[in-house]
Write a structure and sequence with these properties.
Radius of gyration: 19 Å
Helix content: 25-40%
Largest sheet: 10 strands, mixed
Distance between the termini: 28 Å
Number of helices: 15
Length: about 375
């Protein structure tokens, strides 16, 4: 099914799932199995990014070891998971990371890793190649040192760029992630040009999400800034050969109702706007399971991947996510696009005291 850029933007509103930018992408469809699982393999990080939604830095006291992660990945494979996305913190700081990746790819999971790129030396990239990793995403938030350093700290830009070059040299499919804030919103075209010159396969743009340190640092992207950023991406995307993707921009579409109408008869009946607990879940560094990384708190803990039976958790938990929660919201009940929008992001709705998604200004 051929979808326009705006239609893909409407469907790919989830700010957490990696499926908008991975090669193994598609609509969020409910199935009997968790299609995609994200594992936060460590909370330890060598950066202190101002927008980090998970506030990575120090490792948890009870983080899992290599063999425990291999046990979990085996269970995920048996559960029918197709895509494994490895995050942190910085995953390359984790002892045994290359063995864990190799184990995952050997089991046939499409395995991708997200890194800040700083530790990706020639040796590391070659080792990643040997692990048969399917894809690596590098996070860079500015086309030069001065812009990137505002968000990711000083003297990291050249290291990240060299990391990308090493991955490309090792012939590993590589993408770049760019989180848009008020600090870097005016450098979209420069960033696309940089990504193109580096030879990466794609670049993904997403607006900053107000969770973790982004909330603490009050990094809210102004609505008009987000609208203009998306307009710019759409305007210039055809001028570049690189694949350009987005996620988290649905409510910044200036023609949202028209896009809804065009999608109405295209989308399968088992589509869900929020994939949490329906087609994906996340596992924290200590094995705790949640529907969504933006809702990692005791209220939303579904169990533990080591202490509890994973099949039982998938079959019987995630009740908050699997009910049509948006039908209890007054604004959503009377909204003309709610059949597809489905309330947008539950995490952002919780941030807005369960009134409606904090990004939504649509008038029924």
């Amino acid at each position: 099914m051929e979808l326009s850029f705006d239609e893909m933007t409407f469907l790919a509103d989830c700010p957490a799932t990696p499926l908008s930018h991975l090669e193994s992408n598609g609509q969020h469809l409910i199935d009997n199995n968790p299609y995609q699982v994200t594992i936060y393999i460590t909370r330890q990080c060598n950066l202190n990014c101002t927008h980090c939604y998970i506030s990575a830095g120090k490792p948890l006291n009870d983080e899992l070891g290599k063999e425990e992660w291999k046990h979990i990945i085996k269970n995920l494979s048996e559960l029918g998971t197709k895509v494994l996305y490895i995050l942190g913190g910085e995953p390359l700081l984790k002892d045994g990371i290359f063995e864990i990746i190799h184990y995952s790819t050997t089991l046939g999971l499409y395995t991708s890793l997200s890194t800040n790129g700083i530790l990706v030396s020639d040796k590391v990239s070659e080792t990643l190649k040997k692990s048969k990793i399917n894809e690596v995403q590098v996070s860079i938030d500015g086309p030069n040192e001065s812009i990137n350093s505002i968000i990711r700290g000083k003297n990291n830009f050249n290291l990240a760029v060299n990391g990308v070059k090493n991955l490309i040299k090792a012939e590993i499919p590589t993408s770049i992630s760019y989180v848009i804030t008020e600090h870097n919103k005016d450098y979209i075209e420069e960033m696309i040009s940089l990504a193109e010159n580096l030879g990466v396969k794609s670049i993904n743009f997403s607006p900053v999400q107000i969770f973790g340190r982004a909330k603490l640092n009050n990094l809210l992207l102004k609505r008009n800034s987000a609208i203009e950023a998306y307009k710019k991406i759409k305007e210039i995307k055809d001028n570049h050969k690189i694949k350009i993707t987005t996620n988290g921009f649905r409510f910044y579409l200036n023609n949202i109702y028209d896009v809804y109408l065009s999608l109405k008869n295209k989308v399968k009946a088992n589509y869900y706007s929020c994939p949490a607990g329906r087609s994906r879940f996340v596992i924290d560094a200590n094995g705790d399971i949640y529907g969504c990384e933006l809702l990692i708190n005791p209220m939303f803990k579904e169990g533990n991947a080591i202490k509890n039976d994973l099949k039982d958790i998938w079959k019987n938990k995630f009740k908050t996510f699997r009910k049509d929660w948006w039908l209890n919201l007054n604004d959503c009940k009377q909204c003309s696009i709610s059949s597809l929008c489905q309330g947008g992001c539950l995490a952002r709705t919780i941030n807005n005291n369960m009134i409606k998604d904090q990004n939504c200004v649509f008038k029924f």
